[in-house]
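hi support,

uploading two proteins for the ticket. first:
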Amino acid sequence: MKKIIYILLLLTLVIPTSCEKMPNEVVDDFNLGINSDFLEYTLVVEFIDAANPQNPPHDIELQILDNENNGLLDSEGEVEFSVDAGIASFILNPNSKPNGPEDVKSFNLYAEAPGFLPVNFQVDFTENSKDQNLTISMVNTETPPSGVGSSIENLNLSNGTLNSSATIEIPVSDEKITGAAIKLEPGTIFYDANGNQIFGESLNINFTHFDASGDASLSAFPGGFTPESVIGENGEEENIYFVTAGFASIDMDIDGINVKEFSKPIKVTMEVDSNGFNLDTDADIKIGDQIPVWSYEVESGTWVYEKTGTVVSNNAKMEVSFETDHLTWYNLDFYSYTCYRSNAITVNAPGSSMGSYFYTELVYAYNNQPVGYYARKRMYLYDGAQINYLRVPNNIPMKVRIFNGSNWYNKGNLITETEPFIICTESATINLPSSAFPQLVSAEVTIECPNSNFEFKPSYWFYYREKGARWWNYGYMHSGKFQTYRMKTGTTYEFRTYFGGWVTTEYTLTNNENFIDIISNEICNFAL
């Protein structure tokens, strides 16, 4: 039997009344009145520590790059963006929403936090992707996740010059299947981003290497496997995708001044997994294979082809070595080309009367490796729903996989997957069994304030979980209503959402109608 939950004042939403104003004017008086147009397109970004997803990074600084006409605003309509408990919440300015089914509004977000490698990622809004939610992994270099190794070293200098050779190694371990090393030559002089020599007595090195397999390692791949900006072998921008054989981040500074270039090249060596896949030969990687080497500038999100490395044997291990005279991310990546938009994947879910959120992955059929962060996300799926992806690999078999969990670190069980198909040219159907849709629970959310007639039924996101459970589920309400197959009667749930601060409550579902009254004078005064 369907259960109804009436949640009163689960969250507060304060939206401007004047859509006709310029974006900067809208921002100035955002806390006046209510206009649900500003909630049509929303974005929630959850930042996690890749090694410990329950504890988000602290003191995250977030930028929206090239935010034209204030197209992306935070949940309070501000152009200054903040992260609270790992969550950043945004709305799309109505003046910047997509104009037609082929229009895509894209935004690049850059985030950094003390002790963590920075990240740069892209968000795309289309007419059919209004409720966006992403999980972005960040790597703590002192406590990296499985599949990631880090070495933090300090070398003595003489007035900015390295007197003796130095090798920094990241070894193989129980949780890391490939190693890596960098070697610096004696007499090396170091330069900043402007080409000026850096003088000092101590060179600090932060070297991090990632295996080419494993959820935690691949989830931290910088910029995703189908990036927006790639300068190819011909020196021109190309639409390509990557299949990685390993990647690394190398950072150096002298007395807090970042090193960008060297007077003598440094040598970078990365081991290659013998089970790795060579996209060019459609077989496992072997001795003699050629692997393109790419650099990545995280501040701009741009990839550049550098050179090609050769797989050689060294002490019964396969590895690729190359020299470089500048610092950045470096990746060993096979590549091919993408199409801009995939064909539709149709969901067949005859056992459901409504939809539900599921964790989904778009993966390569040969090894189930996810294509990138944008292709591993929660999706609201229902009978007849159509899934589309942007910038996807062409001419290589793919699969869509659906799990009953909430994220890559909490996948749950695999429910179903498509047969392998070419996503750019072939259509596919994915079948969700009736067992994926147990008892349906509906909720109605109404904002009410004491001593006033203020009432509102919002369209907005929220999280919920069983009280004391480890992981949160994601939900979204439309005009104050949502339905889920993830709640059970007789169970106490915690609810939370964010709008200028966290709003939380808990309630135990019964076999009768459930009413949750939450009155907050502070929130109501702000709303009115």
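and the second one:
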Amino acid sequence: MTARTHKPLDRTGPDALSAERIGWVDVPVRLKAGLGVALAGAVLTAAGPVVGVMADAPPPGYASTALLVVLALLPAAIAIAFAVTGRAVTGAGVLVGAALLAPGRALVDLQLAVDVLRASRPEILVPTSLAPLEPAAGLWLLVAGHVLAAVAGALALARAGAEPGSVYAAEFDDPSADRPTRARSVFTRSALLAGTIAAVGLLVVPFASDNAFVLALGVVDSPAPARYGLLALALGAAGAAVFAGSAANLAVARGMVLGLLAAVAAVTVPQITAGLFTELLHPAFGPFLALAATAALAAALWSVSPAASAKDADVRLDLRSLHRVAGVLGVLTSAAAVIAGTSSLIVADGIDTPPAYASRLFLPVAVAVLLLSAPMLASGSAAATRPAFIVVLAGVGLAAAGSLDAAFTATGASGAVTVGAGVWFAGLALVLACAAAVTAAIAGGAERDDVDLTERSYALPVAAPAAVAALLAVGAYGLPVLKAPDLVAPGIWAEFRFASWGLLIALGAVVAAAALAPAARPPRAGALLLGAAALVGFRALEYPLTAARAADGRPGQGLWLAIAAVVALVIAAATAVSARR
């Protein structure tokens, strides 16, 4: 390949947000080969379900072929699209991000050949007996496709064999494409958190099952090689997230996180769909968690722009962009929550469906999120609002978990009942809320890196009421707010169900706010505690909003503890704001 003289792009002028365009002729031969190998692997992976994975196998739990084909082709299609439109460095990152999950996916698929009854793959087949099944050609096509995806990622690594001085090498090494050092450190920490969450989501059970022939197995219960495949998936997701978050070149980072998102979607979307549409199966929280964490990281990385230098002004510019993106995501979250709260959770032909009591909590949550999203869009008020905004977003998880639990219980009880639009918008609101929270948290990390905190101290006057509030919150979320003779409410210590995850998310947010507030600056501490007060208030609102769902209902201990926790949090917030530290 002939070397060319490369003139770096001026990123301080009108083209500051653009990347250097790399013509197809300037794409390294090794990267071209990687794109070709990735496309071949995608075709093989897509052909596997079409050809047939197991001989004489029963049908899958739902019409999954089209979905599996699209998910198989997605990473290669994204990478090729970037390469042919002049962003080959980003396309290479896509191949690397997707390749890190390929070994785990291959091991998980090989479980079908070892013991299909313990493979837990309803998108491939739902066994109806204990009769052994033999692998067919489609299984080996799947495994070969994953191997080729890993090879494609290896070919795209580093400069992909580009000669020094070439256009591709110059763009890959261009320091003007780097993020500021402090902004990069913020993304590294946030990516570690997002990658850890995604890894946990990939390790736990993919769905709940009432079918004796379809086992819901997480990493602990899975046999080899699926167990090692799940561990490899978790390590690959965490590693890809950290590499993307710490990469100096923003184009590489963006590509890697897109490749990771496509690969995680290929694993989790069939699991989520199986839980929703396969008889006797119900969704579990893990796949939602993995997909939401990865999507949030992708949204955060694509929300910032390359900086012209590593000056503090560039960090502040990124901070404003992050606030605006978080605010827009908050507005979209609020809109999705309103639709989820006013739409049907279940649909049944010829049957009168009961009111969606569980969805009513979405409406006050949507109002609170919208009220806090508006200041996030303004430069002057975003920083002061951000702590409360992050905490209140946990209310979406509380409302979504309760709504989805009610829908899954109803669909599992009767085959004539299917999920309604409220379920889809509840899931959408949850994903958007995660993306908004992670984006705002990254903005908070960027701000803290730009502030001298050496003189900060732990405020004991704030810690005392905050600690009391945290203890009260444990009881508020752990005990029912509504008691009735025929009502079995979800809990944390007993009756743990899908809705219990929402209780844990909200409780964790309140406890974290109470623990962080005494060490925070007074305005930020006050915002944290007021956000936590609103979050506990949502728990108290469950009683008036949902009391009609049970006959002879009366307030439970959780209601009084929630009200007491709100009072304690407001007192702690007032103490924090008035403090002079």
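thanks. also noticed: The first helix runs from residue 29 to 51.
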